[in-house]
Write a structure and sequence with these properties.
With about 300 residues, the protein is mainly α. It contains 13 helices and 2 strands, in the order αααββαααααααααα.
């Protein structure tokens, strides 16, 4: 997987090509392209990479070599010139399984959601949405969900390479340009499934957490199919309209800080504000996504 760097030009063409196609598609459909939100997403991407560079890289890259010291086996994906395709498949499925739970918990645990909410903040859906990711992941520690991969014996470079491929796949899911894809919808995560995931319509909340595959959503009961012809409202339940990339990245952490200041003398309540579902409140003044999606 360390050979991924050799595919840089292809990856760049993948990003730029899809982006240009989408802009032209909007013009063909006579639909407005949200350049402002795209600019915020690009600014977020630049700041995120600068922050990661300053702190020494993503959490997994930093702790991977240390975790490998405690591995129970040794499972490189390549031995000499031969790829171990069974191990490649095992790593892919294992990472996809853990990604499902990482993604789901990033919606269900407020401490993790503080970072992930950034990705859901755009009020429109285009490929630049894929680039708007929180840069406080190292603070939340959510990436530790993938620690079992290192302990199982997969190498850090292989894990990071497979994770990168998973994220590269997900880029093309962030669009309204593609409709349903027939039989592929049964097995793979698709733009249709991912539009549901980014929707703030009450009946679409908490659904479709898969990366490349959709099978774990179907297995664990979190799959919802896109309803044909129904308009999707993108963004957070409480829309975020800021054009300030710093505020966009930190707004939920600021909300958490306010709750800490208000309830630091009440540890039992404070723990729930930190680690219960986003929207939980001790007095019922707020609503979680499950409360919003459940008819009263």
């Amino acid at each position: 997987m360390d050979g991924l760097l050799h595919f840089g030009p292809i990856v760049l063409l993948y990003f730029l090509g899809l982006g240009l196609m989408e802009v032209l598609w909007h013009r063909y459909k006579k639909r407005a392209y949200n350049w402002t939100e795209s600019a915020v997403s690009i600014a977020d991407m630049i700041i995120r990479n600068l922050v990661l560079l300053a702190i020494g890289g993503p959490l997994l890259a930093q702790i991977g070599p240390w975790l490998e010291k405690y591995k129970i086996a040794d499972m490189p994906l390549r031995v000499g010139d031969s790829w171990q395709w069974g191990r490649v498949a095992l790593l892919f499925l294992s990472l996809e399984f853990l990604y499902y739970w990482f993604h789901r918990w990033s919606h269900e645990i407020r401490w993790f959601w503080a970072t992930h909410a950034v990705h859901h903040s755009p009020n429109s859906m285009n490929f630049m949405t894929a680039e708007r990711l929180g840069w406080t992941q190292n603070i939340s520690g959510a990436m530790l969900v993938f620690a079992p991969l290192f302990l199982a014996g997969f190498h850090t470079t292989d894990i990071l390479g497979m994770f990168s491929l998973n994220l590269l796949y997900q880029y093309w899911l962030h669009t309204e340009m593609f409709g349903r894809l027939g039989p592929l919808e049964h097995l793979f995560n698709t733009p249709s499934h991912h539009r549901v995931h980014h929707a703030s319509n009450p009946h679409y909340l908490d659904a479709n957490y898969g990366g490349v595959l959709i099978i774990f959503d179907k297995l664990f009961g979190t799959f919802i199919s896109e309803k044909h012809g129904e308009p999707i409202k993108y963004g957070l339940v409480k829309p975020l309209n800021s054009r300030n990339p710093i505020y966009v990245a930190l707004h939920e952490w600021m909300n958490i800080l306010e709750d800490i200041k208000a309830h630091w003398r009440e540890p039992e309540i404070l723990v729930k504000y930190l680690f219960d579902r986003p929207g939980w409140s001790h007095d019922g003044s707020r609503k979680t996504s499950s409360q919003i999606s459940t008819p009263t």
